[in-house]
Amino acid sequence: MSLLRRLLILTVFVLAPMGMLAQGHRGMGEPSLNKGLMEIPAIRSSDVVLVYNGFVINYNTERLIPNWVAYELTAEEVAGQVPRARGFSMDLDYKDKQAMREDYSNTGWDKGHMAPSADMKWSQTAMNESFYLTNICPQNHDLNGKAWHSLEKYVRDWAVKFGSVWVVCGPYVYANSYGTIGARNVVVPDGFFKAVLRYDGKNYRSIAFVFENNSQSQPVKSAAVSVNDVEALVGYDLFTNLNDRIEESIEAQSSWDEWLK
Fold first, then answer.
1. What φ, ψ does residue 130 adopt, rounded to 5°?
2. In a 10 Å sphere around its CB, with 0-12 CB exposed, 13-18 middle and 19+ buried, how is residue 167 labelled?
3. Taking the C-alpha atoms of 33, 190, 108 and 224 in order, what is their torsion angle to the nearest 10 degrees?
4. How confident is the model over 13-37, as pLDDT tens digits?
């Protein structure tokens, strides 16, 4: 987490009235939400927002999967050495309905991280929270282990190369082609998206990716689209804190080569 982001969160925590310290969804221990952070999409009054130490989730209480997960990843965080957590669990601080491990048992679907555990190696708490089922979606095994995993590594490389990146990712559901799993009817997504934004001190650059939730070959380069494309797909305004004068042009970008320079 960047120093500026830590200071912003600390300022909100110190200055906010006691009744505003928590979002009201995870209890009074929940970190404060700073809607001004670059990675945070536009938030609706009806959204259930779960604030964790390393990422923020907009949780869908009917589908029992996230609508989106947002976080900043810095070069310093990528260098973290916290070991991978041992297993998945419910978020016991969130008292509303959520998926359980049993919902995924013997279904053939992976427990697919949205905020990757490998991006949370800078903090034991962040690592543990990345294994909460609120951060998980039913994901095809081949997608999880191949294209999605490859994109996660690209994002870490970009965080090191550019100093930091802002990430928003999650599932999309349009046909519910795969139905639900488990006794709680956890919705299986039709696919997944990931949008990435960077700043080099002069210019912003963005790119996004869309994958289908199946075992077909989906090279990362071929999955590249614009942030605008993802917004049209999922119905959320991503990177809403970009200056309005440049937001449209930045979010129209989809050049893979710009991220390989």
1. -70, -15
2. buried
3. -80
4. 333 333 333 355 887 678 888 999 9
What the chain holds in terms of domains, given with CATH numbers, is: 3-259 (3.40.570.10)
Residue identified by tokens 């869309």 is 210
Regarding pTM above 0.85, the answer is yes
Residue with tokens 């960077």: 198
Best CA proximity match to 187, nearest among 67, 50, 43, 45 = 67
Supply 230's token pair.
């993802």
Tokens of 60: 């869908």
Task: Retrieve residue 223's tokens.
Answer: 């999955």
Please identify which residue in the block is written with the tokens 């200056």: 243
Considering 25, 113, 141, 149, which one is annotated as catalytic? Answer: 113
Find tokens 């494309």 and name the residue.
Answer: 229
* Residue 53: C-alpha distances to residues 30, 210, 256 (Å): 8, 26, 30
CA 199/CA 211 separation, integer angstroms = 25
Q: Is there a contact between 38 and 239 (Cβ–Cβ < 8 Å)?
A: yes
d(CA 171, CA 50): 16
Report how far residue 250's alpha carbon sits from residue 247's, in angstroms, rounded to the nearest whole number. Answer: 5
In the prediction, which pLDDT does 17 show? 33
Which structure tokens are listed for 149?
């995993």
Is 113 marked active-site? yes
